[in-house]
Amino acid sequence: QKEVEQDPGPLSVPEGAIVSLNCTYSNSAFQYFMWYRQYSRKGPELLMYTYSSGNKEDGRFTAQVDKSSKYISLFIRDSQPSDSATYLCAMKGGSTLGRLYFGRGTQLTVWP
Amino acid sequence: GAVVSQHPSRVICKSGTSVKIECRSLDFQATTMFWYRQFPKQSLMLMATSNEGSKATYEQGVEKDKFLINHASLTLSTLTVTSAHPEDSSFYICSARAPHGQSYEQYFGPGTRLTVT
């Protein structure tokens, strides 16, 4: 079993839709949870950063962490064509200096 | 924000030659940099952790003699793919660790696409 599971999609939605992206994980030691956005042929860009359980909101993006279920989510409201990218979840253990464990990434297309 | 650059962005080389990829932190000093490899529609696979002034730590299954990593300064790490073969063709991405609020986070370079013919 991989440490981080993420449905690769692809996911295709119309502009303005609410998008829900999810990851599950098996390692209960993970404490830091991140979402990265990666455009085609580019490096990942840090989008959201959350420590432990709870919600975090930044503009149209909301990250949720449920450690009891080992489940994290990223919601995108009022999705735009410019949101079309691959979204990777990542997480690490109790040390902020630890290595990252990535999901496979979900490919999202928002069509106008 | 923390900016990381990579050079070259794309390289094509012949089988048997060596290729060097540079990773630079432009506006901060990075004592630790990471090298990843990514295949199409796959996640990032950590190859090695590079610490300034010391030997790199390689992940299991990564050949250290084939993928030479040097972290000679606080702003530069290099990855050299020695005696490249077509199966080494991939997207190589580096990241550098930088402060993020009261924590640390990895900031990624734009990647280097290597094609070995």
Structural summary, described in words:
- The complex is a heterodimer of chains A (112) and B (117).
- Chain A is mainly beta.
- Helix content of chain A is 0%, strand content 54%.
- Chain A has no helices and 11 strands.
- In chain A, the strands form 2 sheets. In chain A, strands 2, 4, 5, 9, 10 and 11 form a 6-stranded mixed beta sheet that branches.
- In chain A, strand 6 and strand 7 form a beta hairpin.
- The mean pLDDT of chain A is 92.
- Chain B has 117 residues and is an all-beta fold.
- In chain B, strands 2, 4, 5, 6, 9, 10 and 11 form a 7-stranded mixed beta sheet that branches. In chain B, strands 1-3-8-7 form a 4-stranded antiparallel beta sheet, with no helix packed on it.
- In chain B, a hairpin with a 2-residue loop joins strand 9 and strand 10.
- The A-B interface holds A 6, 8, 32, 34, 36, 41-46, 49, 51, 88, 96-97, 99-100, 102-105, 107 and B 4, 6, 32, 34, 41-44, 46, 49, 91, 93, 95, 97, 100-101, 103-111, 113.
Write the layout of secondary structure elements.
The complex is a heterodimer of chains A (112) and B (117).
Chain A: E1 4-5, E2 11-14, E3 19-25, E4 32-38, E5 45-51, E6 54-58, E7 61-66, E8 71-76, E9 85-92, E10 101-102, E11 106-111
Parallel strand pairs in A: 2-11
Antiparallel strand pairs in A: 1-3, 3-8, 4-5, 4-9, 6-7, 7-8, 9-10, 9-11
Chain B: E1 4-7, E2 10-13, E3 19-25, E4 32-38, E5 44-51, E6 57-58, E7 67-73, E8 76-81, E9 90-100, E10 103-108, E11 112-116
Parallel strand pairs in B: 2-11
Antiparallel strand pairs in B: 1-3, 3-8, 4-5, 4-9, 5-6, 7-8, 9-10, 9-11
